[in-house]
Amino acid sequence: MRNADSEKEAESEAEILLGKNSNFSVILSPREKELSSIQISSSDGGEKSEQSLDGVMGRDLVAVPIIFIAGGKNARVHHIDVDILDGNSTANWRFTGFYGEPDASRRREVWEKLVCLSSQSDAPWLCAGDFNEVLMQQEKNWSIEGVRYTWCNRRQAPDMVWARLDRACGNSVWCERNPETVVMHIAVPYSDHVMLRVQWRGTNVTKEKRKCQFRFDARWLQSKDCQKSKSQRDLKELEETYRKLDASPINRSRHTQMEQVRREIEECHRRDMLKWKQHSKIHWLCDGYSNTRFFHSFAYTRYRQNMIRRLRDEERVWWEREEDIQGILLWYFREIFTSNGPSESVINEVLSLVQPRVTLEMEQVLATPFTAKEVKTAIFSMFPFKSPGPDGMLPVFFHKFWSIVDSDVTRAVLHILNDHVMLNKMNYTHIVLIPKCEAPKMVAQLRSINLCNVIVKMASKCVANRLKLMLDSILSQSKPGFIQGRLITDNVFLAFKLNHYLQSSRRSTRGCIALKFDMSKAYDRVEWAFLRGTLLRLGFNHRFVALVMLLVTTVSYSLTLNGKHFRYFHPKRGIRQGDALSPYLFIFCSEVFSYLIQDTERWGQLTGVAVARQAPRVSHLFFVNDTLVFCEATAEQIGEVRRILRVYARASRQEINLQKSTMVISGGVPIAVKHLLEVVLRVTVGPRHDKYLGLPAVGGRSREALFKSIRDRMWNRIGEWNTKMLSQAGKGVLVEAMLQSLPTYAMSSFQLPIGFLQSLESLMAYF
Fold this sequence. Notes:
This protein is an alpha+beta fold. The chain folds into four domains: 13-201, Deoxyribonuclease I, Chain A (4-Layer Sandwich); 218-306, no CATH class; 332-695, no CATH class; 700-766, no CATH class. The chain is 39% helix and 17% strand. The chain has a six-stranded mixed β-sheet, with no helix packed on it. Helix 15 packs across helix 17. The chain is globular and about 95 Å long. Residues 443-694 form the Reverse transcriptase domain. Residues 221-248 form a coiled coil. It comes from Sesamum latifolium. Pfam families: RVT_1.
């Protein structure tokens, strides 16, 4: 165990190593700590022994003696339970090394023992070991670093099996005290299991002081004059006053004073509930639920999952210092937002195929000056507790005090919309990075969310509200999900029918192909010159295009890493993710892709797929950056698809993510032809498209297997929620608001099996 990197960090950090070969051992190495004793107990009814550790310093290793033989040779002993006592204070925590029963028929008895262990103490509890059980397809506990699976049967393919049997988990008290817990999987050559390394830092870590940014606190809404509410110190003073009154002699004034103090304490708790509800992003629970520890748990969980501890650069070198990670992020995003702009001739050549779609009536609507009514409609259509931008304000503030701020806010927004004048700081934007997976390794595994000021949100919302009324006249039929009166499930239904046709087709002469493309960083790579040219070619007037480009080109970004903001920089391309206007602008740009495909179809160089003789041919389906292209399985048509992609990329600078793109070829096509098509397009050939827009893209023999991910998500949600923090009424609200809504999206397009629905009801009843 290495010492702390810096002496100035007064940190309480510890590690546990669990190794499996011929024995089972636990190694504890706490930093800057002195342990007074360790108590050890086993599950075979043996007496609890205590080992004195007086004088053992934190840099030394403390080894717990061997308790049982790994591999299940001694089935009577399945855990060791260790109480770790801090000699300097009364704080303590528990560690349980667990071994799951290999025999499935006797496994329930072992689980009951583990449940019994969990209820023996309210202290922070860490449990780790070989559970001999797979919970679900996609598990989600703490951040995992290293190999994902922990056990392999070491057989040759196709009989090789990988599974995650070893894991570490903790109770809610542990998670609150140690929010930065990390589990590392370390491969060892002498075992078919990996070694678990659990590392954490306690909450008494001395953190670097950072400049505090203004954030509107929802608790201030409880006061009529929007003053700051009582602090936590005031709450403690109220509780102390209540205890003193309770110990005083009984009289009438004492009772009146106690009632007044009790009401003030309840008011402080309600304000704290609003604060933690805001931090935990729990919007489904009704106001008045006073169990604030439930919100604390969610807030700590979000903090732990969103923490970025280290990243790997382009040369596969790991960096852990905050300054080094900042450098990697800044280089990555500056590279993306730097324009290697296409020439005007290249853009005009591609846009020459675009036909004007904006009519005279639409121009009159767009040319009409924006009104105060539109501004009010925009702000009141926003969710009250949306994450704040650089201004730190929430829409709920404007909802609450609109009668006071109406004139000033409306004047500022209309100044942008009608006069096309905006201060640079108004368009400052924070880029918040959210991990797409557990323990992200590269910047590409981080999802960027843009948070802008409320004033700019209102202006973008006003423009978007006008555009959505005319989308059905501007967009092609390949984008039904964005047209008013149509649904996203229309795309899902069409894709399912077309993929089913390809799967069941057995034509030997000429097959069909379904290509699924994913655009890499689609919003961030939109060239401003290409966007402006597209809007003008579609028929939008110059004044409206100037307003759109004002909102797009005056932005300045600041990256946010673990709550700390970097300096601002000005991009040269890209549109904001999370902005109300951005989806409309992106689909206008992707409309150029539709015109390229339609032009190729018009010349007979590309043929779509028809599921029947009289059915219309479908060549492509679009939804944001998810693209499906259908054509015949010939080298000529695949070559045309490649040419279209190259021409579109040269003008718009969009890039295809080949790792997420797949190609499915219908039956009857010779293997040699499949290999040729794969080489021409350089996209992997797969047996099927598993999902499209989050739903199955093709059927299978087992319908329950198609929707197994829904059950896994429900079980995952239940595992994340601590039921001890919820009342029975709170559980009921949680089931109605969260669990019952999980299968709704799938049920809008598919009829789920009765047995599958019963299994979901069983999970909800278990919760």
